[in-house]
Amino acid sequence: MLRTASDPDADAGTGTTGGAGDRWDGLLTAVRHCCALVVTVLLAPRLWWRRRRRGTRTAISTATMILASSLVSLLLGVSTATASTPVGPHEATWSTTLDSTVTLDLGPLGTAAMESPAGILGVKVVLGEIPGDPALDTANAASVGQSLSSDATSYLSLVSHPDLTIRQGLYGLAGDALRRAGVVEAIFLCCVAAWRLAPTKPWRETVRAGVSHRWAATVAFSAAVATVASLLVPAMRTAPSPGSTLSVLEGTPLAQARFSGRIADVVTAYGPKARTFVETSKGFYAKADTNLRAAWKAAEQTEGLVDVTAVDGKVDTEDLQARVRASSAKTLVKATDPEPDAAPQPSESPRAAATPSISVTGARSVSERGRKTAVLTTDLHCNLDVIAFSGVLDQLSGADIHMDDGDLTMTGSDPERVCVDALTQAVPSSAKKVATIGNHDSDATASRLRSQGWTVTDGSVQTVAGITVLGHDDAERTTAAGTKPRSGETTEKIASRLATTSCGGTPVDVVLIHQPATFDMLTKEGCAPLLLAGHVHAERGMTTEISPRTGLPVTGIISGAGKGGTSLGAVTEDAFLHVLSFDATGALVAWRAVILHSDASVTVGAWRPVPGIASGQTTATMASTPSPSASATSVQAPTEASQSVGPEEATQPQEGAEAQGESDSSDG
């Protein structure tokens, strides 16, 4: 039967067939477009590469090669790094491993191991000997006993602050890894350069021919893979850790560590005591930190007019406000109520009274002329917690300079580099750092300080944050074997040389010296206006004397902590730190003491003026607080010493300042 154009069935069949064909055609077209797009994308880099200039292609390929080779070199360096960094009192060798384990090898005492937090990368630490005193002929029962006591202190410091030792070791490994990576990269680049600069083509063609030969390439590749596998597989094999976990360490970071040998017995027996000591010490200094912040905040709110003591993170605000009002009233009376029988001097005039010849110092001068702030520490003796406490004071005071007046360590041994590192990390990076070397510090201490960015006094005038500082190493050197001369110079000779230098062409703002016995000669010469010392483990306040040679005032501070408050754990006597405020010329305008008490309370002293000298006197001393040795609960209202000094008082002793003879500088 013939189909006509008007046949509806024929039209329907034709429409159905045509629609299906169109869909297939569209699908095939889309697939072709997708394939073309994929090919274009795949070929785009090649086309882009061909369009680049020859120089551009060379630069890109060279950079890619260097980046890839550097990455491989770094991986090799990290996986083979070693370092020598002390652990407690021990010398120790650190090395990286690929067994996912951190292992401490104590030799015959056993091992301690735990899972590495760095994945496949592990660390093995092998303890070595404890360095002895170089002068073996001086060893005796007393010196050896002192050395053993120092070793025990180092162990407890390690337990209480393991992060400092770990950071030291990791820094050492990182440095060695970079050195090794640099060597590997240098060798690789030398080989590439030799290849590029080969003078004749036959050698290069021979190598290319060998590489292009199938069997030669296969053998070379197989040998390389076998070599790498023989090195990596044993290194990456994680053997079962010997020993077992200890219940006494539950709740500590070492809860999952496994101990074996005698060390496991030692940890089981003494672990609870060490843990209690560490927790008690941490609790004490956590309270001290809180009290310092609370006392400092309150002191700032009162503009440093009165002493502020914080206990349990709180300040007695009612008592504080009463003392501030009383202090302000005293200042007002002093400024407006002259003595009834006081007759004006003929030379007095409004202009002369308004323009005193001697600058006013004290609390009021800090906001007016205080341009630089310095924090002074001394005789820290590696008490890592007090070191951290001093860093908090740096932050709160906005210190521009941190001055350490010596005896940062106990014996100056190489393992005590952790003391230097701890203070460096505590001081804000924005603050400049200057230190002098005390009798307990060594040349190694000085070298470590310099390597950490400290300016170390060396007998010359040095500028630190705009303040000119003069100082020198202590004349004596104290170790476990006793005290002996450091060099041929005595304290008197050093003092004489520093006095001569201070009167040279460069003006000196501060003499930073550990031994206060040097003050006499420096005061007689009278060229350095401010002398800072420690050593005696006692705070002596601030003393001003008139130089017999120049007739100028020379001011000195002797600072420090009581002997019971050094080295380890909570302080048992008041520990003093000082905050100094200098004007733009480097002159001292005010000072205050910050006292850490044995009950963890903290006193932030009022800003005090430089003691004035009355007519007919040559010496005046001002205490850092009304009662320097008082406990936190007995701090009284400050004296007039904390107030601004009026023009008429500039040459008279301040209330709270007393005349006295030479300060005692007994050894400590």
TrEMBL record:
InterPro entries: Metallo-depent_PP-like
SUPFAM superfamilies named among the record's database cross-references: Metallo-dependent phosphatases
Keywords assigned by UniProt, alphabetized: Membrane, Transmembrane, Transmembrane helix
Region feature (Disordered): 328-370, 617-668
Tagged with keyword ATP-binding: no
Top-level taxon: Bacteria
Keyword Membrane tagged: yes
Bias type Low complexity, positions: 618-639
Entry's transmembrane regions: 30-48, 60-81, 177-195, 215-236
Name of the protein: Serine/threonine protein phosphatase
